[in-house]
Amino acid sequence: MLTRDEVLKIAKLARLELSEDEVAFYQNRLGRVLDYMTELKAVETSKDAFVRHVPLDAEPFREDISESFGGRDALLKNAPALEEEGFLLPAILESE
Amino acid sequence: MMEFNQLDMRSLLEGYQKKQFTVTEVVQASLKAIDLKNPKLNALLEVNAEKALTRARALDADISKASEKKLFGVPIAIKDNILVKDWQCTAGSKILEGYRAPYTATTVQRLEAEGAVIIGKANCDEFAMGSSNETSHYGSCRNPWDLERVPGGSSGGSAAAVAAGMCPASLGTDTGGSIRQPASLCGLVGLKPSYGRVSRYGVVSYASSLDQVGPFSRTVWDCARLLEVLSGADKKDATTSHLEVPPYAARLQESSLSQVTLGVAPQWLQGVDADVKEAFDRSIEQMKKEGAKIVEIDLPRTRYSLSVYYLIAPSEASSNLARYDGVHYGFRAKEFKDSEQLYNRSRGQGFGKEVKLRIMLGTYALSAGYYDAFYLKANQVRRLIQQDFEAAFQKCDAVLVPTSPSTAFKLGEKTDDPLKMYLSDIFTLPVNLAGLPGVSVPCGLDKKNLPIGLQLIGRPFEELKLLQIAQAHEKIQGVLRLP
Predict the structure, then answer these.
(1) Is B131:B237 a contact under the CB 8 Å cutoff?
(2) Phi, psi at B424, each rounded to 5°
(3) Which residue among A22, B371, B373, B451 is buried most deeply as judged by most CB within 10 Å?
(4) Hey, what domains does chain B have and what are their CATH numbers?
C-alpha cells in the first residue's frame, strides 16, 4: 500500500494535478496493482537479460538530410494559444 | 438493391473488376449503414461523407483500372489514434479534443495509394489504454452482437464498425491485444504483425516497444491483402524491418494443415470460460482431422505477462505522454498562475482516470529507488517470456490459444477492478512482449450467441504461415456471418 505522500510525490513527478478524491482513489488503485506486481520478485532472472525488441535488420541510422515539413500552418492551427506565430505561455521571468 | 455493406472486401474488389457496381454506390451504402447504426453503436467519432464521396467519384472515373490497385474502392475506418491529414485525431482523449492531424500516417498513405477510401475515424479507449472501449472520453462503443456488451478494446470502434457492416475493413493498433481481443469479441479476423513489420509513423505513441498497427476484416484473405499493403520498411520508422513482404493473399493456399505442427499449452487454459474452451477444443480437433500435428508445449513464464506488461507499457507511456502539456496542441486548462500549473492542470484535467493511473504507475516504476525492482525486473522477465516462445517454436510452427478467456462482457462489468479488466488480455499480452505476430479468427458462438476467437501465434515475421493456417481453419469453419 502506498502512502498519501507517496502518491503526491508520484503525481508531482508525472506533472499531474490531482483532486483530493483522486489522491485517495489512486492510493488505493496504485497500491492494488503494485501489490500484484510483487510476484515478479520471486522470478529468477539474470542481470544482463534484456529484450531486444527491434528487428535485427532495422536501420537505426540514416543520412542526416533535412527535409521541409510543409505543414507549419496546420501545426500552428492546433495551438491552444498563439501570439502572432509563437506559442503563448505564462511569463517565466518575473518583471522587475 | 444489392446490400453492398454485407460484402467482404474481396467480393467488393471482384465486383468492381466486373463492373457490377461503382465505388460511389458502395460508399453510399457504407454511409447509409453508418447513419443507421452509428447513433447506437458510437463506433465512429468522425465521418466525412463529402470527402468519401469525392474520393469515390474520382476512383469511379478510373474504374477500368480497378484491378491495378490492391484496395480499389474499399471503404476503411481508421482508429482515432492514427493520423489522417485534416481529420481529427483524439486518441479517445479529452486532451486531444479538436486536434486536426497535420500529416498522414505511413500506414494510411499506403492504404490510400492502393485505392482505399477513408470513411471515418473509429472510437477507441483513451490512448489505447483499455480492453472494453469504456475509457474513451467520447463515450463507450457498443458491440453489434449485443448492444448491452462491450466490443472489446482498445480498438473497439474499428471492430464494431466492421461487424456492423459500416465498412469491410478497418485499422487498429495493438499494444497488448487491442486488435485481437476486439476482433474476438466482435467475430472478426484481426492481426497484430511482428514488431517492426508495419510502420508506426503517424501513430499516437502509447508503448513504443510494443505498439503495432494492424487490420480488421471479415475473412482471412482480406486480412492477408491488407497486411501486404501495410507491411514493409519505412524510413520514417527506424524500427521497421527490411525483410521482403510476401504477397500474403496470393500465397494463402500454398500450405496445407498436414504440413504444420501446432502447439497447445494446457496450463494456459485454466480459468477459460466453458463455452470458449469447448469451441477451442473443437477447432483443434477439426484441424487435427485435416492432418495438423498437435503437440503439447509449456510456456511457464507467460504467467507473469500481466505484471510485466503493466510495468513496461505504463513506463513507456509515462514518457510518451509527457508531450501533452497544454502548450503546442490539445487541451489547455482555463486558469493557471504559472507554467508549472499550466502543465499540471492541463494534464490533470485533460487525461482520464485510467490514463492517469498508467502514467503514475510508469512514473513510479521508473523512479529512483524503484527502477531496478520494477522496470528493470520486468524487462528481464520479458526476456524469459520471449525465451519460452523460442523454446516452443522448436517444437511447433504456431501456438494456439483462445484469444480471450471470455466472450463479450457487459458494459460496466469490469470497470471497478483494474486487474479483472487487465485479465481479459492475458492471452494476448505475451505476444506483444515477445514481439511475435498473432491473429485472432472466429471459431464459433457461445450459448449467448456471442463470437468466440481463436488466436494463432507465430514466429517473428512468419505472418504468411500464420495466415495459411488461419485460412485452412476458415475453410473448415466457414466465414462467420455478420450479427
Answers:
(1) no
(2) -70, -10
(3) B451
(4) 4-256+456-477 (3.90.1300.10)
- Which of B253, B256, B267 is closest to B293 using CA atoms? B256
Work out the percent of chain B whose per-residue pLDDT is above 90.
96
Q: Using CB atoms, which residue from B103, B359, B374 is nearest to A71?
A: B103
Q: Which residue of B has its CA nearest to A61?
A: B238
Closest CA to B173 of B59, B264, B82, B42: B82
CB-CB neighbours of B130 under 10 Å: 27
Helix (H) or strand (E) holding B190: strand B189-192
Distance in angstroms (rounded) separating the CA atoms of residues B203 and B116: 19
In percent, how much of chain B has pLDDT > 70? Answer: 100
Peptide bond into B217 cis (omega under 30): no
pLDDT tens digits along B76-103:
999 999 999 999 999 999 999 999 999 9
**Among candidates B12, B60, B370, which has minimal Cα distance to B217?**
B12
Would you call B111 exposed, middle or buried from its count of C-beta atoms within 10 A (0-12, 13-18, 19+)? buried
The yes-or-no verdict on residue A93 having pLDDT over 80 is: no
Residue from A68, A65, A75, A74 nearest B235 by CA: A65
Is the ipTM above a cut-off of 0.85?
yes
- Neighbouring CB atoms inside 10 A of B253's CB total 12
- Report the length, in residues, of chain B: 483
d(CA B96, CA A90): 21
Question: Which residues are paired to B169 by β-bridges?
Answer: B76, B217
Do the chains contact at A30 and B367, CB–CB below 8 Å? no
Size of interface A-B (CB pairs under 8 A): 173
C-alpha cell belonging to residue B12? 467488393
As given in the structure block, the three cell numbers for residue B132 are: 472494453
CA A51/CA A60 separation, integer angstroms: 17
Q: Among the CATH numbers 2.30.30, 3.40.50, 1.10.20, 3.10.110, which is that of A4-42?
A: 1.10.20
Rounded to an integer, what distance in angstroms lies between the CA atom of residue B100 and that of residue A79? 10
What is the per-residue pLDDT for A96? 56
> Residue B396 has which C-alpha cell?
511447433
Q: For cell 499494444, what's the residue? A: B175
| pLDDT 10s digits, B55-82 | 999 999 999 999 999 999 999 999 999 9
- Interface check for B308 against chain A (CB to CB < 8 A): the answer is yes
pLDDT in tens, A47-60: 777 778 888 888 88
- Which residues of chain A does B357 touch, with a Cβ-Cβ cutoff of 8 Å? 26, 29-30, 33
User: What pTM was computed for the model?
Assistant: 0.97
